């Protein structure tokens, strides 16, 4: 096949294009960037290796990057999350056909194996000619979770060592596939990743996990290129977490259970941005929310917002529904689950599935798991009495598992940060290669004025009219008419 | 087949029983009635002909009726609304098997034809031996929409006339099937419906449409048996309409479109109970609601509740989403739809599908209907620009078409009214046949104290503890300690 | 004195006129009636005896009545509630001077004695020449609480009996003053009240108390003229109770205590319209509301609205603030008050001061009452520990005692009902005297279409634009284009 | 006079003590600090010069400082804000009498002249013996607005220069009094302020204005001692601004105007923390809020929270009430005020009175200012038509001018930050004088763990129960069990 991609079924492309068209309408930030930069082509010359859930929204992101001049190769950052019709549509492109695809090489399909996953991850760096001349390879990474970045760093590290180590017993299973992938690569080209790393101008990363890895690399002096932390833009963290969850949490519970939320007692564990969005959504449905918190400041905010703040011990027998939002672990123990009301519903919108002790639940003596429908399971404690609880999405993120994750508008905000960060890094890092160095091999957040720009791009869509400062007013406040308007520590 | 029923596929019964078990937990009103009356068997001797959507919730209703002693035969009141697994589970019963069903005869399956529908309606009156002895037939009707009641009245009318008329050009198509059914019956037994009518002690009816028909019959002196209007119980109308829609409206929009509700401008047409629930739900999601109203009192309520009140003309270009809740017709005209923003979403949670002028929309020159997915259609006004709107559920009730209708808890309240009304009418109407006449052939609402009882049955489930009046306090207020507590005109 | 009135200090009239001018802006219903009927003068010939709190808002009411052609004499219906500057301004009138008053005779001042009070009540019937010719006297009563109506009925009763009885030991103290007033009258003119009663075309009454008395008189066949129950207009009861309290409850607590409402636990006793308004206001301030209820329907509404429903026993140790809204008695007992948290705040917005057992509180052994400021008292249970609670307005209505009662806009709605009822009764009762009898000596509520009219008059002021039904839509709904739009039992 | 203080009327002390007692109950943070540190006396040896509004809440602060061992001298930081009864009570102390005061020297009374004000400011540094030995003087400043800090810096600067300059034409009038005060001092003791400055261990400052001055001094290398910026503690800025305003804004409008907030259109200028609190309060009263914003991020937040975002130009004719919350200037111009609806209400809860162009308003041709009552003025544009607007508190902070400012609970949070910062600086700066230097002459914010401590101290009072991390959970999150729990950039 002359065209370089692998997806499950390219015939899905028409269904994908319908959905992309509707999603474009809900992603005004990305569409505004196409409008603003379409002519200037600021990403002309950029070759972006992208690793991010291959969904309809990501399709709009990819086509925004190409509209700004970039060449792109794409893989998903999760073995389950690809929407095949979106992948197909991106490969074919708006004007192509399955026979003559004119889109972007995509290496992603729903339900990959781990071996396949790491193969796709390596493919986004396999630009034509890169083995002959690394300067023909990717010069930018767009990352979600840090897998693409990690692959380059590990590849270069092992090439420097001249060998790929064997997996150790304490390594997670998945790491074996990483090593296998790199071992194969080392055989093929012992300087491949070294060359790739040298030609990368930087990475933009949008998750807490990925950002944490980047800060560790930078702290240890091992970061091989500059990084922009998109995760901590206000227009990413505050919007994605709070307003995204406010929508997708009730959506997930409703689809999963059809249980009336009005009049229910819901225990929300955590009152960070995710918890704030969750509590607001549930109160808006007439539920009574009890919050648990470990941080006294957030706890006091919850109380001031009118919620009861209690420990899980106190609330465990009152709750009809329990939602974790913390990013911590063992928030709801197996023992707590046994104390809940019959048919209590338990779900997670925090981070990993260890917020709920699913392993402990499965090990309870006599417990029986009954599938009500996919992603909705009844865990029966006692078959005689029928006493049981309902667990959503096996303890993983229920807004993804029982609904469809964050709506497009929220992703538009996150992805506009990605695009702007790509432009910023591609343009400025270019200067590094010309002997100037606005960005070193460190981790940066987007300048506040660009964060404000992302917000600005979404105002029209919600009918918001912005007031403009006069020069005199701006001087009085000590800010520029064009922003940024707030000190760095401002909390919004 | 010795067992008297007809459903599509009885093998679904296990899936249905799972769902019934979970629904029972969310229908505390019905379960409390089983608890309270299980021993006394107040419906012993009742033979109930039921016509109501054959869903999982209705299964819990049916099994409550039988738990109270009734015999039951059932049909759906809508050709689309049957959940086949619920029907199967009811037929088999909790202790039966497909080979040895021990449940209730059900005549209902998803997607009936109109001919089949009216056949099922007649089957709920076809009790064994009824043609020989009408006193062996149904003595109660439980109705939703009035079709069962209408069939009896028309049947008796034509038997009195000795002939069934031909359908007239102005009759709705469906009426032809009614006439056909009765014509066949007249051939079989020229006194069938007359006998059935004479043995019916009454009907309980839960819809506005059905109740309106009953009041017309009563006004014209043609009502053949007493009727209880369950629709206007507070615990039906206020709860079903307001709290049911508050849940099922956002559920439906989210499932249909995945569009972020936060920040959207939503035009809600009507601020009755349905509109109040709709507006509350949307505000709870961070949408900005604009209300349209024809009634100045409701309009003033909307304003006092903080909503902008405008005409559709004023709001048509601002709205991102339009929801009708009125029970009226032509609320959103085709012309209005052409003036909406590109990709505006239009849906109905009012009553009939004529709230939105779907016919007018389809007749617009050049308009094209694209199915995005079932029950979600894009109507493209102009293929060049791609200008279009999205219509949910073809203009019919989107909370049914795009979600799963009212949650079980809400139906528990409505159905507890049905059961209590059945007991009331069956017990008291018995007296009529003994020469006393607490109920004449008129339409009654449930006594307030029974309405209060329905509420009372649901308090435990939401953790509400009721305060009891002392005798002295009750005397001061001029009420009985046990209620009722409010004058008839009290508005809640 | 040639001009017939008695107020404390007419020199206050300028301050009063300022306030009246501002209040007019907030009473669009009354101003719209002046606009609509100013020319037609429908109250021309009406001589209205008014008994209603002589406040700034009442001043706007009085001047609306005169603008529509009526002659008016006024007294307050409460010995404390007169705002002297409002009384002065009404007496002087917009164009008069203290030397040449051109307004309305007002018999009211702040802090009347009971003897003075009943003298003022009799003065509103002392029209010039009435003793010579009763037809020159009042022909309409506008009443609040029923004192004016009661005076006429008792006067006529005693005149028929030929004697005024002595007060009995079980009579309230105040009744002695009524008897004294009538005894004096009997001496002056033994047919005075009989003549007055015969010439009265009717009364309009706006309180629950007054309405209850009227229904009792009608039931006993003793009502001497028709009555319109303004209290049960939707635009009175629902608006006054819910939206009035939503404003004036937090206003009162804030003025009284300056205590932050955010984060507080507030126990609201009762979830009728007053309780609904109270709960909404407190939640809007970030308080956590616990509701107590005796009526299961209202209790279920509270739960569905997201409030915890508990008994006072359960909540008494959790609450920071306790508010009664019930109209019942002994809602908060002295014993409950001793169990509250130190410095808990207790207040009443229900009806009479016996909702809180103030007498029992005062009789607790060792209790000490400390005035923090007028209408705010600390009741110290134990001087050693300083344990105490705060009681607002001595247990009487705190929104009146600690704030200024309902805002003008709310009163505009109530008073527009009064004016419309006066017109209705004056115009239609005139027909009675012409031998027709649209109104008998019964109690009526305003026709729904007039209730709707009151709402209509307030829409402009809140910027609400009403949608008009087409003839076709109205026919479909079975209503008139001009209303009324709802069945009588509709609950809003 | 042997006792060193000056207040208006010491006989008010009993009234003050009542209020202090009630305020203590609402200031749990300060009371908890007394409990925690009363025995350890961490401020033993601290001599604190305090400059902060001499209110009842400040009295609780002062007595907390002394309970922790400090000696204190106090002045107000505003000529109008002293509550004389609070000042009297503090001077007398809980156990003293007017004849034998045992409290704290206070130099403050309501309505000081500017000359008096700067005299009181100098008196808080006039510790007995300080002129002889500066080490006997103040060693700490607790400041609000920076006047005390400025006096020391200017004093030392002029002493170094050997002369106090003459005021320049461009200087504000008030600066003349500062110079006069320092000129007199220079005559008395030419090294007074130099000595004082050398002995000061630091200042804690709680306002934006004061903090800005401190950062300027530090940037210019002129800061003479370390400073802690209490203003930017989360428990100060987020709580004071948002929850304080949520309470005191409706309080102020209600007391000033008695106008129903329900159904009104309120334009809130600015959606920072103050604007967020304002909008929430008004929506909670049933008002419809329109937000104006210059910052696109805040604007998008407002839209996501369901508010209309418009420019003032668009909204000026719709608003019934206009509230500025920005900290900027000329937010509402005189020209805008002329375009408002008749009787629109205009008020400020932002910062300075120049948010509303009061000067421009006064200069409008023909405009007339009518006092309705103190702090409430009608500005009549046209006497013929009566067209006018209402301005609250002359454009200054209406929550202070028309109500009583922030409630005690909010101040407890701000003041607990002050006390903790005093302890931190006094204890640690002591080390500086011992040759260690944890704090340099820079501006610091409180460590996050102390910010969390302030929150922790308030949880009991609102009934919030905090969850404690296990060691394992804390390790997983990479935090300490005892906190701090969040990264510095966390936005709450």
UniProtKB/TrEMBL annotation, chains A, B, C, D:
GO biological process, one term: L-homocysteine biosynthetic process
Provenance organism: Nesterenkonia cremea
All residue ranges annotated as the S-adenosyl-L-homocysteine hydrolase NAD binding domain in the record: 241-405
Xref: CDD domains: SAHH
Main location: cytoplasm
Lineage of the species this protein comes from: Bacteria, Bacillati, Actinomycetota, Actinomycetes, Micrococcales
Cofactor(s) annotated in UniProt: NAD(+)
Residue numbers binding NAD(+): 207-209, 241, 270-277, 293, 298, 399, 406
Official protein name in the record: Adenosylhomocysteinase
The encoding gene: ahcY
Similarity-based family: Belongs to the adenosylhomocysteinase family.
Matching NCBIfam families: ahcY, PRK05476.2-3
Domain of life: Bacteria
Function: May play a key role in the regulation of the intracellular concentration of adenosylhomocysteine.
């Amino acid at each position: 096949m002359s065209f370089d991609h692998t997806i499950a079924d390219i015939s899905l492309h028409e269904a994908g294009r319908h959905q992309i068209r509707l999603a474009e309408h809900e992603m005004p930030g990305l569409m505004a960037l196409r409008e603003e930069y379409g002519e200037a082509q600021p990403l002309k010359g950029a070759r972006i290796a992208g690793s991010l859930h291959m969904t309809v929204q990501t399709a709009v992101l990819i086509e925004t990057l190409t509209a700004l001049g970039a060449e792109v190769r794409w893989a998903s950052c999760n073995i389950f999350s690809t929407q095949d019709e979106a992948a197909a549509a991106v490969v074919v492109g708006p004007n192509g056909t399955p026979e003559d695809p004119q889109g972007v090489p995509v290496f992603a399909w729903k339900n990959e194996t781990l071996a396949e996953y790491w193969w796709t991850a390596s493919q986004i760096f396999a630009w034509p000619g890169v083995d002959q001349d690394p300067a023909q390879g990717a010069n930018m990474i767009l990352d979600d979770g840090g897998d693409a970045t990690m692959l380059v760093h590990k590849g270069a590290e092992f090439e420097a060592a001249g060998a790929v180590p064997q997996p150790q017993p304490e390594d997670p299973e998945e790491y074996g596939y990483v090593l296998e992938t790199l071992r194969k690569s080392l055989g093929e080209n012992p300087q491949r990743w070294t060359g790739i790393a040298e030609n990368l101008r930087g990475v933009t990363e949008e998750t807490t996990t990925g950002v944490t890895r980047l800060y560790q690399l930078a702290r240890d002096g091992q970061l091989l290129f500059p990084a922009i932390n998109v995760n901590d833009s206000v227009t990413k963290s505050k919007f994605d977490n709070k307003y995204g969850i406010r929508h997708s949490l009730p959506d997930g519970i409703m689809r999963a259970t059809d249980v009336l939320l009005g009049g229910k007692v819901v225990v929300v564990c955590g009152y960070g941005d995710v918890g704030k969005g969750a509590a607001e959504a549930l109160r808006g449905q007439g539920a009574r929310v009890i919050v648990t918190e470990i941080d006294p400041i957030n706890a006091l905010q919850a109380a001031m917002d009118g919620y009861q703040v209690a420990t899980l011990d106190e609330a465990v027998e009152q709750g009809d529904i329990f939602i974790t939002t913390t990013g911590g672990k063992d928030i709801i123990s197996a023992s707590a689950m046994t104390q809940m009301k019959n048919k209590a519903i338990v779900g997670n919108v925090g981070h990993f599935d260890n917020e709920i002790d699913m392993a402990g639940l499965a090990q309870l003596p006599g417990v029986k798991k009954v599938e009500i429908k996919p992603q909705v399971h009844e865990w029966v404690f006692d078959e005689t009495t029928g006493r049981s609880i309902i667990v959503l999405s096996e303890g993983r993120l229920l807004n993804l598992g029982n609904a469809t994750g964050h709506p497009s508008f929220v992703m538009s905000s996150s992805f506009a940060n990605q695009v702007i960060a790509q432009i910023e890094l591609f343009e400025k890092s270019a200067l590094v290669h010309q002997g100037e160095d606005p960005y070193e091999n460190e981790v940066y957040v987007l300048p506040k004025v660009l964060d404000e720009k992302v917000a600005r791009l979404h105002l029209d869509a919600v009918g918001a009219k912005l007031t403009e400062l006069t020069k005199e007013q701006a001087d009085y406040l000590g800010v520029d008419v064009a922003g940024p308007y707030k000190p760095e520590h401002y909390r919004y």
